[in-house]
Amino acid sequence: MNHCARTLQTLLPTLHPTKNSVVARINRNATPLLLSSRGIRLQSQNRAFASMAVADIISIADRLDIDQHASMKPTPLCASVLDRSIQPEEAAHFIKSEFPIRCAERIRMIECLPYQDEDELLEVHKRHIQSFLTMRRIASNDLEYNEKEFISVVSEILSYDEDTILLMMKGLHQLSKERPDEMNAQYVNSFLDAFLLNRLGTEVMLKQYLAYVGIRGNVFERSCNIMAVTRDTAQAVQRLCVRKTGVRPKITLEAASVLKDDKEGVPIFSCIPGAISFVLQEILKNSCHATAMSEGATDYNEIAKRPISVIISADEKHVKIRVSDRAGGIPFEVGKNVWSYLYTTANTNVQDATELAGFGVGLPLSRLYTQYMGGSMNLVSLPGYGTQAYVFLPRDTISQCEVVPDLDHEWHVQEPIGEFIL
Ligand SMILES: Nc1ncnc2c1ncn2[C@@H]1O[C@H](COP(=O)(O)OP(=O)(O)OP(=O)(O)O)[C@@H](O)[C@H]1O
Ligand SMILES: [Mg+2]
């Protein structure tokens, strides 16, 4: 029996009929989960939680529907499918059955947190339930495919989800402060890795539908010019840095490839440009922020001596991007903490974090994105000198399939492709 089916059994006696609906108090005695990045274990700790339960007013039928979908196995998307020109109706048909499974899974993940009593987490939970019910209604009412209506549902769901990460981070930072033993970094990191990887796959699926109906560009591109993506991203980050700090760090770009066909060394390969841009943006934001905060940064000549360098290199099978700065590096004792969603040295508290720095999500989320693309990410710090970030991507992305975390099944991010650290 799956976890939420078990939760449901414990919940049924607590259902309270009200005038028009039924109040389902969920997760009163939920079983906490131990999530690990390489798989998920259920840990039974028969104890009642003192925390306020996530409470929602939904009908019993909807509650059962969510739990039933949460127990179903998601179907991973493969790049070879995204690459095909698919009729919007076919894509909509897939989304109508697949979205509820993934969304219900994320609802369950929130409900399985040992504590949810933060407004932000309750808000994310509520929005997920809303999205689930919206999609289920259109799936059951709309036997004929109504493109206009479906586009508006997909757009609405994407907009509900826009600030999910921000809300989750505010809620989880607060919970980890209040309950440091249970909501410790390891627990929060494993939870977010699973939750956000599931969310990323859903986002790709919905955005690709909007591409099929011509509302936006393809999420997956067969011939992506990585230099153009990097240049646009670097310019956007520079503008952000000037706006936030008044300092404009210099960013240099170079490309080199062993393949003669890669003109001027720039590899053209299949990838998800939006995801690569996100990763580079987070790395460059960190480098720009650290450069702008370093000593003498207000002096133009000093900044000119510390350019941020981006090198794209490629062979037949891989693309590797190195971003290096001369902004003083990260102290050795920080170690793997940089990969924690709860670690940041930005001079802000989480309530007023800026777009440039402040939540601690940039690096762990970027690493998750590279893993989603079948790649990997590493950092090398030279304390007192600077930091180098390495992003490693497979060049043949067409053969890649995503991993969709699901509490009922072991899930594994792909083994990182060879990192070639000599
Ligand atoms: N290039 C760098 N130079 C110096 N320190 C860095 C660099 N990159 C990361 N760090 C350190 O690692 C921490 C975590 O980085 P991360 O990008 O995950 O979060 P953040 O930048 O603090 O906030 P966010 O990215 O969510 O806005 C930073 O706060 C900083 O202390
Ligand atoms: Mg950052």
TrEMBL record:
PANTHER family in alphabetical order: [PYRUVATE DEHYDROGENASE (ACETYL-TRANSFERRING)] KINASE, MITOCHONDRIAL, PYRUVATE DEHYDROGENASE KINASE
Family: Belongs to the PDK/BCKDK protein kinase family.
Catalytic activity, reaction form: L-seryl-[pyruvate dehydrogenase E1 alpha subunit] + ATP = O-phospho-L-seryl-[pyruvate dehydrogenase E1 alpha subunit] + ADP + H(+)
Organism name: Helicotheca tamesis
Alphabetical keyword list: ATP-binding, Kinase, Mitochondrion, Nucleotide-binding, Transferase
Domain Histidine kinase, first and last residues per copy: 279-397
Pfam family, one: BCDHK_Adom3
EC number: 2.7.11.-
Signal peptide: none
Matches recorded under PROSITE patterns: HIS_KIN
Cell compartments where the protein resides: Mitochondrion matrix
Gene3D superfamilies noted in UniProt: Alpha-ketoacid/pyruvate dehydrogenase kinase, N-terminal domain, Histidine kinase-like ATPase, C-terminal domain
Record GO cellular component, one term: mitochondrial matrix
Name used for this protein in its record: Protein-serine/threonine kinase
